[in-house]
């Protein structure tokens, strides 16, 4: 049974390690380049960058999936809201061409292809640039994918950028295809909210999983503290802290959007963004609780080990303290002196046994009184 | 006696676990739905949703208990203040109908039926939406019920929402039925305060119970640290931290109400809301003290275990250090060498006893001086 | 000597427990009552509530001690400043009558008789309500009395409320009786400051006592860490934290008064109130230092116990490590094999002693090099 | 060598104790007196209070050292800037006369002679009152003098107050005597800055010394953790925390001056005061680093002791675990049973030795694999 | 293998010590001098101070490297932007002459040559003074150079100051030499940004190295906690804390620049400075994570040692507890009493072996059940 739970811990730990990837990708940006030169920072991929365009309005929805920027720009009409979903950030030229056709500042262009960019909101006269972190369970459900998700709100166009394809936004697409949905009736700012809300909703899915792990761990530690290795607790704590740091910057982003400083967001959408802010606060609240729980777990582990050591110590002390004088006495009468009067006494041996028993009883009584046994 | 107190701790711990339910209810909201679609999040119940309507004024009080929204809306008169108490949130259609008849925003409707919504105040032009956490001792007095309590203040109507029936608001009802009470003379904003005050007052009832538990625990730990298991201390700390997190958001809510930004709250009511804020601050102050006490308890426990181990260690060391050389000497003269001149000496055996006694006395004196005994 | 200091610690601890009373008085307010109904919260007393009225001005001072509210109100003249000192809060009717005659809001009336009210300043159009905590050494000088002290500044009248008689304000009275004192020349706002200053000055008296205790403790711990029980350190820490929480809210009160928002405080008095604020900040600074010292004391205690354990451990290890092989060797030659050639060798016994000595010296040298001895 | 470093620590500790005096001077202010009565709080001295007056301007410098206030006031001319340096605060009458001649508020007068006054800036219409803490190495270079330094800036007069003579301001005097120096060209506000800058510069001298001590300590702990007493580390931490608390309030003072709210400070001087603020921030930064280092040192000490204990434990365990079975076997063949067939076997004794060797080798191999040795 | 990793740790530690130099350079400023006198604080060097001047514009670039201030000032034209790079700060006169020719305030002149100046932004009417910390890997790639980098933006001139030559700004020079680069098209404010951006970019290079070390360490500790010395962990923590303190002040500097209060920074440059602020925030975020990781590492180390000790303790206890009674029994029958009936019994010896085996099995079973083995 003990062996079983040891294995359980090992599995748990390996799961944890997969859960939130903590490996840093070294910053591959060549320092000699001007900082507003577009350089893709992140894993290089060979697949082509995909563009999914959806031109929609109360009257209809036109969709196009392409890999050509020209096709995409030609497809879009200026009158109705359009969502351009860019999947893949490694083709710097293509993305540069797309962004230049909308007159985006070079620094923003560089930020779009930098997959290590911190979450932020940059408000310009003509457009709004938002970077958020996207957390989603990976395909086999044991790990978590952490990517950047950035978007540009340009009046009637919303361009979103993501590194790899994800099913996260499928429900948003579904609602867009439904002609009675609010998404169809509203502009790009509402769509932006719907997408960010989908992102934040997935924080909860991830947090729920981690919360379950922490609880499973808590139960494990409470149940069998003796033979436990502190490694998994350390890993858990690091994971939870890492998660907290991943989610925390979302607060600033949501707060900036909810303040509604940008003219591109209509007043009717502000209430939705304030709701988004509430959700982000809730997510951060959960991570803070997780941090506290993980820290508390470690403290408890230390206390449990200390307590265990204390108990073991007491047993050792009692045994040693009882047997040391007895063995000494036995040693005495094992000596080979020629003149040891006790050795010849008939009742000496049984008497010594009596002494042994009395000594033991007295010591046990003392230990009992001191509550060592 | 020791056994008794061990049992006491076990009972205490099981009580603690019941006190504040820490199990997360998984968020059952289907992620594919639009976030402003009303979905009941929480335990599904089969009982019907109850509406209790009280239309009151200085001149009279008319009451109605119904399960039909139509009856409820028909019963209410626009001229006098009305309190609609909704008990049960699982019938989304019914609540939706009620809220739509007052023109409430879909997002607020969704928040009303989401029992995991964080406490907040949302101020709109025509209405004020308040979510608070309701903590109350449960029926058998050992645990705590934690629910959301939300209310909508719409000029002359106050709609309150709660998940399960509670006796918490009975005193408010009683005062409403008393025709000379201030509640009857004042509008819905005063009633809102009276209800929120009842909610906050019950925080103190719960906190009082927990404070008593912490004190009982503190006494227990001070009294018998030797054989104590760190588990209950860990659980206590987790509970108190959880409680703190439950109550903390009330501060923002009370502060927002006391600022009186909403036009729906009359100036005469503001002093009452400021008083509410004072009470909330007091409650949070208490939870912070509890947090500190619980953390301190753990530290003390660790110190006590360390100290205990130190004492046990010293006894072990003294015993071993005294008996090891004595036993060695006894071993020497137990050897069977043919040529051991001491063995033939007449006074050798009593002389050795002398050596034993002297050695023991000297070592005891050393330990005494080093304050090990 | 050891026994003596153990007793010293015991006395110290019992003193500490008395110093700041940490027992909560359960909130006796019946939850069914409206929150603005006056209910006395606190110890019920049987003595009558005393009113001491002092009507003063540059030209004279008229005093009256009575138990009748009517007499008190009749005695007071509207032209000159008057101080009404109410001692005892348990007679709700009497205090209610007094306050109603000055048109005080019901909520403030309820706060006056609530002895568990947190310190605060409430500014109204016609009056200013201040609640402060009063800390004073008790009659036998070993404990501390903690009470609320509240006051109402109503233009030309200052009403102060305290639970039990205290000599704290005697110097203020003395100055009022001196016809050349500033108190006589100034109005009620100056008197309010004089009273609050007397309250804060007594914080320092209490803090001075506690500071002395902490220092005495620090010296005790530094001197004899071996046989010390962590209980008193835990108690000391709890006491100091409790004290900090008692004094901390005074900061907000003093700050609010020093800002001088109320029209009832003349500009000439503001400089005095700013001085009061300085004093409060100083008092809080001292409690924060005490907190740090108490926390540091605990850390040091743990370090000292660890260090002690380490030393004891090393002695045990050295002794065991030296005697175990020696005893083993002695055991070898105590065996009764018929064919043990060494036993017959003449110089075997002294040679073995040589081995014993060499072994011991070598091991001592090793321990010396490893700095275990 | 070990003994030597023990002595080094002892010296270090005694130095540390002297470094920053932590003894509280009990507040000797009689509580019955009005708080704005001037009472000297601090050590009573018998020497006379000295006044050094310097009336200066671009054209010349006139100096006077006197003990008479009348002489001092008569000497000063209203047209040119004058610095009155008051050394010694115990003669309340003399200082009161001086301050009254400049129309200083009684509360400020009381603050001047209170040597326990916290650092602060009080801005009045006609004058500015500044209190700072003065830290300077004492005459024998091992300890630190901590005093209050307060000053009054009254348009064309600067009065400074200090408890005891110090050479701290000699460089400022020297620059004042140099007719081409900026001090001579500028007014009292510039002089005020020069003096405060001299005060803050001496913080760095003290901090430099303490920083050296901390580094020396760090090296000592890293080198020889085994036999170290945690006392000095505790003392060091307390000292550093105390120092931090002494210097911290200077931030508020410097910030208030740098904001330049007072009309008595010319705009040209503001840049100097902002520089002063930078220096104070730097000093506080250093104390914060020292706090962290001291706290880290304690943590490291605990870790080192733990590690040490672990190593000692392993050695003890290995020895005991090897010799316990061997000794048991030797004990077996030391028994006196008449029928023990092994005893008669010729090769039994060497065979047993073989068993001893094999057992030992196997156990050593196991410990090696478990990395205990 | 164990020995190998011990060596690995030793190398790691020595690397760490070199990484961030923590030795304080004592402040060599003579305290008797006026604080606005220029005094070089830092290492004295003998090489001449170098000035590199680059006068550039869209039309061309003129460069000059000289050691003469006069040449430099003569070379610069007022119409086009000019960058004067000053390398070496020890020649106070030369730098003073240069700064006076631009009318820089004496205090700023003093700050320029003070290499211990804290990072800050000082905004004047005609110029902007910025101090930043420059972190760069040193020539052999194992350590880090920490210097101050200050700059003065004076409308059409940018003067930068650095202590020693560095290749950090080579890419900026390269872009300046490229006639189509943005640097050439823009003014000095853009160049200032480019330089500060190069500085901040190098923070990441250093942080990346340290992050790698921390991860390497984390892996090492997880792998082999038994024989590890806490020294390197302590050093690592100190290093990381030191690094955090070095980088932290950059936040205030970047924030002040991004606010764009100075009229010398054009609006078009503000977006670049806001990007700089983002980068600084990111760098600080990383150092905070490193702090947390280092602190967590120490906690984990302590937990691992505790756990280890617990395990060792249990083995010791089991062994001692099994062998103590057995050895005692063997001792009994080694006694030389004449009347010990058991000794003559034929099956006594094998029976005793039976007792030995049964005792051992029972005790092993007990330990197994208690999960000590």
Q: Can you summarize this structure?
A:
Chain A is an alpha+beta fold and 373 residues long.
Question: Can you characterise this structure?
Answer:
The structure is a homopentamer of 373-residue chains. The first copy, chain A, is of the alpha+beta class. Chain A has two domains: 2-302, CorA soluble domain-like (Beta Polymerase, domain 2); 305-369, Magnesium transport protein CorA, transmembrane region (Methane Monooxygenase Hydroxylase, Chain G, domain 1). Chain A is 56% helix and 14% strand. In chain A, helix 7 (188-223) runs antiparallel to helix 8 (231-247), helix 7 (188-223) runs parallel beside helix 10 and helix 8 packs antiparallel against helix 10. Chains C and D meet through helix 5, helix 7 and helix 10 of C and helix 8, helix 10, helix 11 and helix 12 of D.
Domains counted in the coordinates of chain A: how many?
2
Structural classification of chain A: alpha+beta
Quaternary structure of the protein: homopentamer
Tally of helical segments of chain A: 12
């Amino acid at each position: 049974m003990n062996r079983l739970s040891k294995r359980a811990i090992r599995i748990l730990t390996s799961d944890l390690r997969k859960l939130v990837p903590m490996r840093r990708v070294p910053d591959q940006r060549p320092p000699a380049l001007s900082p507003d030169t577009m350089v893709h920072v992140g894993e290089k991929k060979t697949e082509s960058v995909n563009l999914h365009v959806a031109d929609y309005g109360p009257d209809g929805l036109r969709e196009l999936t392409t890999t050509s920027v020209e096709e995409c720009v030609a497809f879009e009409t200026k009158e109705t809201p359009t969502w351009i979903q860019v999947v893949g950030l490694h083709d710097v030229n293509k993305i540069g061409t797309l962004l230049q056709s909308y007159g985006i500042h070079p620094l923003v262009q560089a930020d779009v292809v930098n997959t290590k960019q911190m979450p932020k909101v940059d408000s310009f006269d003509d457009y709004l640039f938002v970077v958020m972190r996207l957390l989603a369970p990976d395909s086999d459900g044991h790990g978590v994918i952490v990517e950047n998700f950035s978007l540009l709100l340009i009046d009637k166009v919303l361009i979103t950028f993501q590194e790899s394809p994800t099913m996260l936004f499928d429900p948003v697409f579904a609602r867009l295809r439904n002609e009675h949905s609010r998404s169809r009736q509203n502009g790009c700012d509402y769509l932006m909210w719907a997408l960010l809300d989908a992102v934040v909703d997935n924080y909860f899915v991830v947090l729920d999983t981690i919360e379950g792990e922490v609880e499973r761990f808590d139960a494990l530690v409470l149940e069998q503290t003796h033979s436990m290795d502190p490694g998994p607790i350390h890993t858990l704590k690091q994971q939870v802290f890492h998660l907290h740091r991943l989610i925390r910057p979302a607060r600033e982003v949501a707060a900036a959007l909810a303040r509604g400083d940008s003219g591109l967001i209509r007043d009717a959408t502000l209430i939705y963004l304030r709701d988004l802010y509430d959700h982000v606060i809730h997510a951060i609240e959960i991570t803070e609780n997780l941090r506290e729980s993980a820290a508390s777990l470690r403290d408890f582990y230390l206390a449990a080990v200390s307590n265990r050591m204390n108990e073991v110590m007491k047993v050792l002390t009692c045994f040693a303290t009882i047997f040391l004088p007895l063995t000494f006495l036995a040693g005495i009468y094992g000596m080979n002196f020629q003149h040891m009067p006790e050795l010849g006494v008939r009742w000496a041996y049984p008497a010594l046994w009596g002494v042994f028993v009395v000594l033991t009883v007295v010591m046990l009584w003392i230990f009992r009184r001191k509550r060592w046994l």
